[in-house]
Amino acid sequence: MNGEMAVIDLRSDTVTQPTPGMREAMARAPVGDDVYGEDPTVNAVEARVAELAGKEAGLLVPSGTQGNLVSLLAHCQRGDEYIVGQRYHTYWYEAGGGAVLGSIQPQPIPVGRDGTLALEDIAGVIKPPDSHFARSRLLALENTHAGRALPSTFLQAASDLAHEHGLAVHLDGARLFNAAIATDRPVSELANGADSISLCFSKGLGTPIGSVVVGSAQWIASARRWRKMVGGGMRQAGIIAAAIDYALDHHVESLAEDHRRARVLAAGLEAVVGADNVYASTNMVHLDVGDATTGDELRAALWSEGIRIAGGRRVRLVTHLDIDDAAIDHAVERIRAHLPQARSC
Length: 345
Ligand SMILES: *Cc1c(COP(=O)(O)O)cnc(C)c1O
Known about the structure:
Structural class: alpha/beta
Number of helices: 14
Distance between the termini: 33 Å
Radius of gyration: 21 Å
Low-confidence stretches: none
Number of strands: 12
Bound molecules: pyridoxal-5'-phosphate
Helix content: 40-55%
Strand order of the largest sheet: 2-8-7-6-5-3-4
Mean pLDDT: 96
Strand content: 15-25%
Largest sheet: 7 strands, mixed
């Protein structure tokens, strides 16, 4: 808890405090110099995550953004392009890293309401080998997208399509564990069609830092070189890997609790805004308050009471390890108290 007032922070699942047990595991971890490949805790966790995802090898990176960046760099050469959803993180939220640092051209296409891409849209932008065009080289997918867990049938079909055209597939699986829990499918099944996957542990799984990229041993060797180039070679990184190991032991099953609490939160808000304006998926609730001013006013009113949300017309509320049932009940009550006033302004 931060300060005197118990804060209920619903902005993101990145805000969690590492638990005492996790901190203890980090403190106890045997470590070595990982740039020399000598950190036993890093090596074990890279292998563990790779096996979970059904791939040969893994690579620890400090952030999901760096995981996606080294993946773009390891798949694509200068003048290649990656096909990506317009609002997918690898295009919209990563400061243009692939273009800036890799001279890789993004080819964004629309994202459906369910978070998937239309197969016709993907096929329609794959370019033939012709000197007019960038070389279509990679399809970048995302699961979950805006909290939505993508069907494994879509992931497989999109991957098959890409592979038929000689493209590789990268899956931004920042919240792939949420997708696995929500769809009751093993991570390896959701990862099956992808050549590389980036998995975040600092979101719902509650570590202070750390993502792992997985793929073939040969591809990971290349990604490792790119990681060094972008400054991601870390030394006694076993303290981070130990947090990931701990999260895999203790925090995967409890994602189901986050999902249940998101549904409770959504149900509590439906009474005020109507079922059409609130939507829960995995650990996220999207609340449409009508216009941005209403959202900003709601944000300000709640913030002064120690409840943190993002503003705007579509308010995103995220459940996580530091949100319990009492916090949900309290948040529902306070949002219900403020929202009708804000909406009538
Ligand atoms: C959070 C997130 C990432 C990575 O973000 P970092 O803050 O760099 O760890 C990547 N993709 C998606 C979909 C995300 O939500």
